[in-house]
């Protein structure tokens, strides 16, 4: 390489300074929705890279973004679009500054911005069998919904079709906003119809495919969309690997992943998930000042759980299961603030107004989720305990969720949930919370939690995965007998499961949930609480066109 010297070097440097960086292809469209900042872009990266940022398994990514209420027509600006309402169940909560009714009032009528459904992308597999005995399979995608394709947004540039250069193809079943005269201030309301299209797609999938489980996943604080999708793939893949280990009966054997798409004689061991991953704007910036967003993002997680995630787990998925006749079990996984959003959704059916229906004003919680797992949860265990804390104990009726088992994990290696700087709450992922909950002498939590300890020593000779009752000298199977009254399973995952730092993350082992040991724990919980009931016609599978 030739070395530039003297005036040549100066001229070269000045030319660099004088050059302006081109705008991204979506720049004017993002600005129209007040989502043009460098950080905002990270929560719709699938729109830029729809083939590269994708699920490895059949399913959907539902992306939420946050924009000024006046821009997208949120409930503060347009009260008639609200689908969340306090009623008899929330009114029965104890008094407290952070009770559910106050949370609903805050995000609907006080916040300047609102969460809205930005886009829903379907990932599937297509087959080319034009060459005899040599089929070719590849991943494909299509859009169930895309707010950026709304006509007033997409036609910001006259005679310019952004979809044609962005691979934004609509699914056969979709809410296709470039075909209707949707205004930007209608986007919040259109999110409801986007979820109807998701429901219809799920119904078709569940009728045609051999799916054993609908797997709902929500990630936590400081997780960009691209990273969230990678995490969805890792969690699903670890579960798949663990299920195959279970079928083979030997952890030491190489994992034969092809067994996942072939009929097994023991159908109860099949795991063929249809994934629904939810992404959301979980940070302000990548700077040190982002720590100041903790309380704001905690509130956002509750908003999601009370609103859009509530609608997905308590309306969209149950309706698709009923319409399809599928026996697939519903498993919901949430990490950190994602656990906060997910558990909030499980307990929030009573505040939901179904589309085109009157507010039913339920007096008791219900949920179609079979298993809900909060991994290193960033929410207080006081939510389960009446008389403790200022949130009104919104999860107090855990034992009355007849079809749902709640599970929490904690780890002594988690330096985020266990941070000494978090003084205002007792996060479920912290060992200090586990000890309080599992101390039989503590009257605040007596009778609420069924405490266990899981470990994975597979890496050493004669090592194994095990889950045992807490506080026993010998390992006692915690599932050998069920408590007379349903409890929340609380698992110490410190030993070999949530033990190490996950590269690129902070908080010690807070994000150590993607390795195979966690897959083994989750698969054990699925076998116990959400075992396969049945599947579709033999020979059918997740091969579909778009």
Write the layout of secondary structure elements.
Blueprint: H1 6-18, H2 27-32, H3 38-41, H4 45-48, E1 59-68, H5 69-72, H6 88-91, H7 100-110, E2 113-128, E3 136-146, H8 151-154, E4 170-175, H9 187-208, E5 213-218, H10 225-248, E6 273-279, H11 294-306, H12 308-324, E7 329-335, H13 337-346, E8 371-375, E9 405-410, H14 431-438, E10 449-456, E11 465-469, E12 488-495, H15 516-529
Parallel strand pairs: 1-6, 3-4, 5-6, 5-7, 7-8, 8-9, 9-12, 10-12
Antiparallel strand pairs: 1-2, 2-3, 10-11
Keywords:
alpha/beta; 17% strand; disordered C terminus; Rossmann fold
Written description of the protein model:
By secondary structure, this protein is an alpha/beta fold. It has a domain at 77-110 and 210-529: Rossmann fold (3-Layer(aba) Sandwich). Helix content is 29%, strand content 17%. It contains 15 helices and twelve strands. Strands 4-3-2-1-6-5-7-8-9-12-10-11 form a twelve-stranded mixed sheet, with helices on both faces. Helix 10 packs across helix 15. The radius of gyration is 24 Å and the shape is globular. The protein starts with 5 loop residues before the first helix and ends in a 17-residue tail after the last helix.
């Amino acid at each position: 390489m030739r070395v530039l010297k003297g005036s040549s070097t100066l001229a070269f440097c000045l030319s660099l300074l004088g050059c302006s960086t081109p705008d991204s292809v979506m720049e004017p469209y993002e600005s129209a929705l007040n989502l043009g900042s460098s950080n905002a872009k990270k929560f719709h990266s699938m729109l830029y890279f729809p083939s590269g940022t994708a699920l490895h398994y059949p399913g959907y990514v539902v992306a939420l973004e946050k924009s000024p209420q006046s821009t997208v027509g949120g409930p503060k600006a347009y009260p008639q679009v609200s689908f969340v309402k306090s009623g008899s169940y929330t009114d029965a909560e104890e008094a407290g500054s952070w009770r559910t009714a106050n949370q609903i009032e805050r995000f609907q009528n006080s916040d300047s911005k609102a969460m809205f459904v930005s886009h829903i992308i379907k990932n599937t597999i297509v087959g080319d069998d034009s060459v005899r005995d040599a089929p070719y399979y590849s991943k494909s995608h299509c859009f169930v919904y895309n707010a950026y394709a709304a006509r007033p947004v997409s036609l910001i540039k006259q005679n310019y079709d952004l979809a044609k250069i962005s691979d934004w193809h609509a699914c056969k079943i979709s809410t296709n906003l470039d075909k209707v005269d949707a205004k930007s201030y209608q986007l919040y309301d259109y999110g409801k119809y986007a979820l109807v299209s998701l429901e219809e797609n799920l119904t078709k999938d569940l009728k045609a495919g051999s799916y054993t489980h609908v797997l709902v996943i929500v990630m936590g604080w400081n997780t960009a969309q691209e990273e969230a999708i990678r995490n969805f793939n890792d969690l699903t893949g670890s579960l798949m690997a663990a299920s195959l280990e279970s079928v083979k009966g030997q952890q030491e054997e190489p994992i034969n992943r092809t067994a996942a798409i072939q009929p097994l004689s023991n159908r109860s061991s099949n795991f063929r998930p249809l994934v629904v991953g939810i992404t959301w704007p979980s940070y302000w910036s990548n700077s040190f000042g982002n720590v100041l967003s903790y309380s704001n993002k905690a509130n956002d997680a509750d908003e999601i759980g009370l609103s859009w995630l509530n609608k997905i787990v308590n309306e969209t998925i149950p309706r698709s299961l009923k319409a399809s006749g599928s026996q697939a079990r519903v498993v919901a996984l949430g990490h950190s603030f994602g656990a906060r959003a997910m558990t909030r959704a499980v307990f929030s059916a009573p505040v939901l107004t179904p589309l085109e229906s009157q507010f039913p004003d339920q007096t008791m919680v219900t949920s179609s989720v079979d298993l809900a797992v909060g991994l290193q949860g960033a929410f207080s265990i006081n939510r389960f305990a009446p008389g403790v804390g200022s949130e009104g104990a919104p999860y107090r009726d855990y034992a009355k969720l007849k079809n749902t088992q709640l599970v929490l994990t904690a780890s002594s290696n988690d330096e985020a949930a266990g941070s000494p700087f978090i003084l205002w709450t007792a996060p479920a992922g912290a060992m200090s919370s586990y000890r309080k909950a599992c101390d039989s002498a503590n009257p605040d939590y007596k009778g609420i939690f069924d405490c266990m300890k899981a470990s994975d020593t597979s890496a050493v000779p004669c090592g194994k995965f095990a889950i045992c009752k807490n506080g026993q000298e010998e390992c006692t199977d915690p599932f050998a007998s069920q408590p007379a009254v349903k409890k929340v399973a609380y698992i110490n995952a410190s030993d070999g499961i949530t033990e190490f730092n996950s590269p690129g993350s902070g908080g010690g082992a807070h994000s150590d949930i993607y390795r195979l040991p966690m897959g083994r724990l989750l698969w054990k919980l699925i076998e116990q609480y959400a075992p396969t009931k049945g599947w579709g016609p033999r020979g059918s599978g997740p091969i579909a066109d778009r």
